[in-house]
Amino acid sequence: MTSLTSLYQFAAERKSAEVTDWSARISWVIGLIVLIAFVYWLMRQGWKWRGSLQSGLPELHATPEGFADGEPLLTLTGRYHASTTAGQWLDRIVAHGLGTRSRVELTLTPQGLDVVRPGAADFFVPANALREARLDKGIAGKVLPEGGLLIITWAHGDKLIDSGFRSDRSAEHPAWVEAINQLTNTTATEGAAR
């Protein structure tokens, strides 16, 4: 009998489950959405502010007439990741669209490097502005295994810029490093001879 009595007491003490307070739940969801929108707005303002700080960077060069007539030394398709101040892989440059990630088609000729970016601003780096190329593991916003990125250093105005590219076929990277470094050495030798 004691077991039946304790069971009866247990059943009598049970209360129904608490009803969901929808107004509190909706308030929390709206508050979270407002917080996320505010953080996004702050990030966008920071991006614009960085662009205005870098507004002194000259306009990018356009591809010269007759560039496509010559025989390309190398071509590459892949991804453009970012451009940064040379030697400072976290100092992203956003002016003139250099901070926009995109697909890329690179063409290297003795005249320079043509960077075609569908959906973003194209630009051209004259051969005398190229400084060096190397393999690295990271640039602003992208880190890969050692040697996973092709970094090309070039001069624009009075600023040295590192631009990071990744080929669809990463086995092409060493050939690009060799070709650009050879081109920069040839350009430097010709400039010294003048």
Structure description:
This protein is α+β, with helices and mostly antiparallel strands and 194 residues long. The protein has three helices and nine strands, in the order ααβββββββββα. It has helices spanning 2-13, 22-53, 173-193; strands spanning 74-85, 102-109, 112-116, 123-126, 130-136, 138-139, 142-143, 149-156, 159-167. It is elongated and about 105 Å long.
Give me the side-by-side strand order of the main sheet.
4-3-2-1-9-8-5
Structural class: alpha+beta
Mean pLDDT over the residues: 84
* Rg over alpha carbons: 28 Å
Count up the helices.
3
Into which percent range does the helicity of residues fall? 25-40%
Largest sheet descriptor: 7 strands, antiparallel
Features:
194 residues; alpha+beta; seven-stranded antiparallel sheet; two-stranded antiparallel sheet; 3 helices; elongated
List the helices and strands and how they pair.
Layout: H1 2-13, H2 22-53, E1 74-85, E2 102-109, E3 112-116, E4 123-126, E5 130-136, E6 138-139, E7 142-143, E8 149-156, E9 159-167, H3 173-193
Antiparallel strand pairs: 1-2, 1-9, 2-3, 3-4, 5-8, 6-7, 8-9
Care to give the gist of this entry?
The protein has 194 residues and is an alpha+beta fold. It has helices at residues 2-13, 22-53, 173-193, and strands at 74-85, 102-109, 112-116, 123-126, 130-136, 138-139, 142-143, 149-156, 159-167. The model has no long low-confidence stretch (mean pLDDT 84).
